[in-house]
## 1
Amino acid sequence: MVTKGFTEQVVGTSGELLRRLRGTVLPAVLTPMDGHGTVDLGALRAYAARLDAAPVGGFAVWAHTGRGLYLSAADRARVLRTWRAATDKPLIAGAGVPRDRPPATVADAESAVEAMAVTAAELGADAVMVYPLHALAALPDGHDRAVRLHERVAEASGLPVLGFFLHGEAGGYEYPPALVRDLLALPGALGLKLATLDRAMACQDAIRAAGATDRLVVTGEDRMFGPSLMWGADTALVGIAAARAELTTAVLDAWCAADHTAFVAASARLDRFAEATFLAPIEGYVQRMHWAAVWEGLLPEAAAHDPFGPPLPPAERARVVECLEGLAEGGAV
């Protein structure tokens, strides 16, 4: 049972974060690594300093773009400590099941999510984003267990919780509107992050369900970014901002300012880059973001590897660079 003191604490923290984050972009940051998966802390410190200077509202660490579930516990701790030392902006940490510790049961998986959230709180995170447990989708009581999992995470960590509607290609599952509504009715709920990839109807349904609340409606829709704002999203947490934050902030800022001419132009630029980076194989987007970060001067070549994604041919990098060069020259389409 949630105590009154706990409820007041989390609700108060959640309300403050709502005010700070609504209408802002939160990059789902990369984790600089070499080809063997060794985290480059020097490159990470420089990268964090550069991104902290960008006009963004905060950062998402341990997210899918940063391969949070693939990192060792020690590396996750190093990454979050580095970001906490680099910025006073809010940090939202992913909480899920580490890939190196496959659970024997769904209950074990739920406990692993809770444990990662507690660690994130101890390391200085301001909120946690709960990775969906795909196994719950098939259980008769999966809806209730999903709601309870988010309650457990908030109770154990003492932090506001962001729900995470993640597409199946990345290990998630589709949250029906009823689950969205119940998750956002929790006292510790900060909002819902949407990453449906290309499921426009599911995205619209979830946004409408979330929009009936006062919580954050966070788009992670790199390939439907502009439309997701028009459907009702009010904040962004996206992988593209890990390498090209200004592409995303320009779209969101224009939308919030009701500058529709600027919104259309900025959306065209963002869409062009998304088309070059979010394509099959979708899991290759992380490596493509690393390449973009190198081109931008955010990461050194030696620390721009995603050892957990699919191998990509040289033509993939050439496509990303050609797009970046075109955008630098002022091209929109």
## 2
Amino acid sequence: MSTATLTPDVLALDCEAEASRIAGWMVETLAQRLHRRGVVVALSGGIDSSVCAALAVRALGASRVFGLLLPEQDSSSDSTARGRAVAEHLGVSFALQDIGPALEALGCYRLRDAAIRAVFPAYGPGWRNKIAISGGSAGRINCFTLIVESPAGERQQARLPVREYLQIVAATNYKQRVRKTVEYGHADRLHYAVVGTPNRLEYDQGFFVKNGDGAADLKPIAHLYKSQVYAMARHLGLPEAVCSAQPTTDTYSLPQGQDEFYFALPYPQMDLALWAHNHGLPAAELATALHLPLEAAGHVLRDIEAKRRATAYLHARAHLVEPVAEVTGG
């Protein structure tokens, strides 16, 4: 393969054919494997959940798709507004449930703030926070930086010690796990299945919470690169506010891009890097395609492998002493 062939065109998708294929798979999976009447989709206002909901409506009809809007105190109001707009656009029934009180009762915010104050003692009401990743794309071990902003708008940052990092992540992971509890509550009530919304980049690189947003009965876009999900959104006629929205974690109170928190590059470049890795292309071809130094391209490819190793636990099933032959799928 010549270097000229590694362009965004490698991710070109026949959206109509793929939408039809996914819709058919959803119908078959729901009827023949899961034996459920419809699906629940948590609508974050982002591109992935919106496309999953649109595909579900195409497959099953709006009457068999139930949407959930599950904000908490750190959620962006824009995300909730986009989620509502998608539900109304698709004509699906939906419910809005603020999970903030449940998170408060579980100690999510208290545990997070205690860990932040161990690094920045002045942190308190009115302050905002986020975590940023660094290292992997430069060939070093990934490490995390805590960024805080005072009510006056002054920002400070410091490298997170392991203990505080783990406590902040453990606390914020409550958000995804509480959301999933609510999703399965409604799924049980309706005799529906739960749709998981990771794209290929997130699924491959372990960008999800185990038994949180990683838990689902079917994941219809886990094989699609993020760029392909954006193309699918436009093909399915989703609102422009969704089609043009930039990926965010919507987990921390300060605005935070997914590439800032986890990935080595913004998603268009990360998609190409993952595609190149999956097709065995050398670092030199990726460097040319992304206009990166050869060394930097090599770091990105190695970081893909490092994240796969580090997050294998998230994909793993529970271990058994010995197989239980009478039970399949366990």
## 3
Amino acid sequence: MSRVVIYTTAWCPYCIRAKSLLEKKGVAYEEIKVDGKPDLRAKMTEMAGRTSVPQIWIDEQHVGGCDDLYALERAGRLDPMLAG
């Protein structure tokens, strides 16, 4: 099983949707909350090249945000990535 890391904020509806999809698939993930943590958010931005949340990585591959995660799911590419 792949390692999934997701950077989130507490009340972000896109974060909630992304986590919901992962949970529906039974995928364990590491959640890194960036609320009120500018240093952590800056690190996320530097790694992702984006400032918005969520930002999601599967293993070492940056997937993007919620819409990107759902696009992978629709294309049938998410499960193989999660399988490792």
## 4
Amino acid sequence: MPATPAWPPASTPRLFVDQTLSAGLTLALDGAQANYLGNVMRLKAGDPVRLFDDRTGEWLAEVSDSAKRRVTLRLTGKLRARESVPDLWLLFAPIKKGPIDWLVEKATELGAARLQPVITQRTIVDRLNLDRLRANIIEASEQCDRTALPELAEPVKLTALLRDWDAGRALIFADETGGSPFAQVARPGPAAILIGPEGGFTPGERDAIRATPGAIGASLGPRILRAETAAAAAIAAWMTMAGDWR
């Protein structure tokens, strides 16, 4: 007896929609999403689409009408609830456009719950396009099967971040001057990873971080890593030892 094909197929397009989804809902997509479904994927009536809303979870929909500039979908059932992700924040000094796009994409794929830009004394980028970064987050979440988007916070100065720090959240900072092996500092529970700018933290900043309750310096190995590489390596290490990779 032939096996029943998986439904929806693995090739089913997956999109984020910024509205609350529910059974039986009909919604119309236009702009880039309609172009993607109608002109790139060439979907027609009856074809499946997976949708998620960062509120209720992921849903299966089918195309009820497809035109050049507008695609209408009808939700047919819920596939899964919104996921619970480990309570890990990534705190990072803004870097140049290409590398920061990569950093945000990989942090999303690796499972960070919150992305917080932090302005330090040696930060070379003082203006961020948060809309572009959020678009990167959404695209990465669509690709990696996340149902919960990481929160993207407004930039904050390091001094303000440390002043208001909650001692109940571990603050693991990548200390290029040396620190404890990452395996010794990653523990389950609320945590944040702090990655400095391309020039590193100043001595005064490093002292202020170390004096913050809950802070501990961590080593990311014997080699010098670019800021975006350090961020991805630290998240992966934490997820392996304390997150949802265990």
